[in-house]
Amino acid sequence: MTHPVLARNRVAVVTGAAMGIGLAACRRFAGLGMKVCMADVDAAELETARAEIAKLAPDGQSGVLAVPTDVAKPADLEALRDAVYERFGEVGLLMNNAASRTGGGVWAPLEDWHVAMNVNFWGVVHGVRAFLPRMIAQGTPCQVVNTGSKQGITNPPGNTVYNITKSALKTYTEGLQHELRSTAGCKVSAHLLVPGWTTTGKRAHKAGAWLPDQVIDLLLAGLERGDFYIICPDDDVTPAMDRKRILWGAGDLTENRPALSRWHPDREVLQTLAESGDQAQDDYFPVEDYPATAKVLMEQEATQVIIGDPEADRAEVEFLLSQGYRSLLMVPIVLGGESLGIVEAMSEEERPWTRTEINRARIISHQLAAVIQSRLAPARPPHDERGAEPRAVI
Ligand SMILES: NC(=O)c1ccc[n+]([C@@H]2O[C@H](COP(=O)([O-])OP(=O)(O)OC[C@H]3O[C@@H](n4cnc5c(N)ncnc54)[C@H](O)[C@@H]3O)[C@@H](O)[C@H]2O)c1
C-alpha cells in the first residue's frame, strides 16, 4: 500500500469490529502495521476479536484497543473518540461499519424501524460527528469509510426497513464527501463501501457468496485509488450485472416505469426492452439471417421462437441458447404502417407464450409507438402572450 492513510503506525477505528467484514478489516489493517481500535456492542465477542488482532499486530497488545460501543448512542461515540485519541493521539481511518440485522417490510413494528435507523444510519452520523472535526483539524490525510449496501441502491422488496437505512446512508455519504472536498484545506475524504453477498457472522459459507477478506481486498484497492464508490461483486453477481441493476433502477424514474419494476409481473417484457436499448450497438445483426425476426418486421404480427420447435430457425435457436433462454416472443413496433423495431420478451422456459403475455407485449409496442410519435411531432409553437394559457408556478 502506498496511500498515506494505509500505512504503518496510522490508526484505524472500526465499528462492528467483533465479526464479519469489520473483523476482516481489522485483521488487514493490523497486517499493514496500523494501530487498530475496535468498537462493537457485543462486549464478549469484541474481547475474543481483540485477542485475535493483538496476535497479528506488530506492536501486539499495545497496538490494539477495544472499546465496547453502541453506535446508536452519540455519547458512546464521543467516549470512543476520547479513548482513541488518548491512547494513539490521532485517527487516520474511521470505518463506520456496524449494522443491525433488524428489519422487515413497511409494516414492521415501529420499534424495529427505530433500531435499524438508530444503528445503520444514525450510528454512522454519530461516528462522523464525533470524529471528523478532530480528524480534519489534524491536517493529515484521513479517510472515512461508511459501509452501505446494494439494497440501499437497488431497493429489492422484502426488507424495506434495511434498504431505507442504507439508501439514507448512501445519500448522507455522498453529501459528506461533497462537503469535505469543498472545504478548504480539508484532507479527509469519505468513501462508500458496498459489499455484495458476503458470508459473515456465524453463518455457514454458501456457494455464490464472497468471504469478508475478498471485500477487504476490494476496499483497500479502492481506497488506494481514491474511489468513492467501492462496489463489490460476489460469485453470483458480476460487476456487469450490478451495473445493469443500478441502471435499471434509475431507468424506472427516467422512463416512468412502475416503482421497482424489476420485480413487477411484467418484468420480462420491460427488462427485455431496456436491455435491447442498452445493447443495441453491440448486438446489431443482419436481420435477413434471422427468418422469424424478418417475418415479424415484414408481416407485422407477433411471432414466437421456441427452441424445441422443429420449425424454428437454427440461428435464432442458437441465439436464444447463447442468452440462456428457451423461448422468445417478438412483437413489431409499428408506426404509420412501418415497422420501427421489435418488442422482445425471452423466457427461460421452453413453452409457448400465453395470450396475456402477447397482449402485454402488444400494449407496450403500442405505447412505444405513441412515445416515438410524440417525439417526432413538431414542437408546439410558442404561445404569444395574449393567447397564453395560465402557467403553473413550480
Ligand atoms: N454480509 C453481507 O452480505 C453484507 C452485504 C451488504 C452490506 N453489508 C454491510 O456490511 C457491514 C458489516 O456487516 P457484516 O455482514 O459483517 O455483519 P455482522 O453481523 O457479521 O457484523 C456486524 C457487527 O456489528 C455489531 N453491531 C450491531 N449493532 C451494533 C451497535 N448498535 N453498535 C456497535 N456494533 C454493533 C455486531 O455485534 C457485529 O459484530 C454492515 O454495515 C452490513 O450492513 C453486509
Structure description:
There is one protein chain. By secondary structure, the protein is α/β, with parallel strands linked by helices. It folds into 2 domains: 11-252, Rossmann fold (3-Layer(aba) Sandwich), CATH 3.40.50.720; 265-375, Beta-Lactamase. It has helices at residues 20-31, 43-56, 74-88, 110-138, 151-154, 160-181, 212-225, 239-254, 267-278, 291-299, 314-322, 355-376; strands at 11-15, 35-40, 64-68, 93-96, 142-147, 188-194, 229-231, 303-306, 327-335, 338-347. α1 runs parallel beside α2 (43-56) and α1 (20-31) crosses α7 (212-225). It starts with 10 loop residues before the first strand and ends in an 18-residue tail after the last helix. Bound molecules: nicotinamide-adenine-dinucleotide. Nicotinamide-adenine-dinucleotide binds next to α1 and α4.
Helix content: 40-55%
End-to-end separation in angstroms reads 51 Å
Strand content: 5-15%
Bound molecules: nicotinamide-adenine-dinucleotide
The topology string of helices and strands comes to EHEHEHEHEHHEHEHHHEHEEH
CATH class of the largest domain: Alpha Beta
The domain count comes to 2
Please tally the helical runs, counting DSSP H or I stretches of 4 or more residues. Answer: 12
Keywords:
alpha/beta; Rossmann fold; Beta-Lactamase; seven-stranded parallel β-sheet; three-stranded antiparallel β-sheet; 15% strand; elongated; disordered C terminus; binds nicotinamide-adenine-dinucleotide
